[in-house]
Automatic annotation (TrEMBL):
<feature type="domain" description="Inner membrane component">
    <location>
        <begin position="70"/>
        <end position="120"/>
    </location>
</feature>
<dbReference type="InterPro" id="IPR052937">
    <property type="entry name" value="Inner_membrane_protein"/>
</dbReference>
<keyword id="KW-0812">Transmembrane</keyword>
<dbReference type="InterPro" id="IPR031308">
    <property type="entry name" value="UCP028777"/>
</dbReference>
<keyword id="KW-0472">Membrane</keyword>
<feature type="transmembrane region" description="Helical">
    <location>
        <begin position="12"/>
        <end position="42"/>
    </location>
</feature>
<feature type="domain" description="Inner membrane component">
    <location>
        <begin position="5"/>
        <end position="56"/>
    </location>
</feature>
<protein>
    <submittedName>
        <fullName>YccF domain-containing protein</fullName>
    </submittedName>
</protein>
<dbReference type="Pfam" id="PF03733">
    <property type="entry name" value="YccF"/>
</dbReference>
<dbReference type="InterPro" id="IPR005185">
    <property type="entry name" value="YccF"/>
</dbReference>
<feature type="transmembrane region" description="Helical">
    <location>
        <begin position="88"/>
        <end position="108"/>
    </location>
</feature>
<dbReference type="GO" id="GO:0005886">
    <property type="term" value="C:plasma membrane"/>
</dbReference>
<feature type="transmembrane region" description="Helical">
    <location>
        <begin position="63"/>
        <end position="82"/>
    </location>
</feature>
<keyword id="KW-1133">Transmembrane helix</keyword>
Length: 126
């Protein structure tokens, strides 16, 4: 029940909707550029994860090979580093206030997802 309440508050006050829309727009752009479709899929995964982060985590995807590792290197160079940095800055800013600490932690959970998204999948926590 606590996870549900935190996720609803995250959607309203923590920026979950804004993050999901931003990642969704990035995914659409990647889909239009055909060559970057794998990055679009990763952006959609990030949009989904950023909508409902409490009670979920990223786990390695079985069968992800060297191709996803090479694509992740390209992702880091083009988008991953500034996405991860923005989540770190937002997390620190939210942790300054007592009420914002859970939302700051949620932003910190999004850092590895934003930095290295390919070859991972979102899984529910037990």
């Amino acid at each position: 029940m606590i996870r549900f309440v935190l996720n609803v508050l995250w959607l309203i006050f923590g920026g979950g909707i804004v993050l999901a829309v931003g990642y969704g727009i990035a995914a659409l752009i990647c889909f239009l550029l055909v060559v970057t479709i794998p990055f679009g899929v990763a952006a959609l995964r990030l949009a989904n994860y950023s909508l409902w982060p409490f009670g979920r985590t990223l786990v390695p995807k079985p069968g992800a090979g060297a191709g996803s590792g090479l694509a992740n290197v390209l992702w880091v160079v083009l988008a991953g580093w500034w996405l991860a940095l923005s989540h770190i800055v937002a997390g620190v800013a939210l942790c300054v206030t007592l009420i914002g600490i859970p939302f700051g932690i949620a932003n910190f959970k999004l850092v590895p997802a934003a930095f290295w998204p390919l070859g991972r999948e979102v899984a529910d926590l037990p």
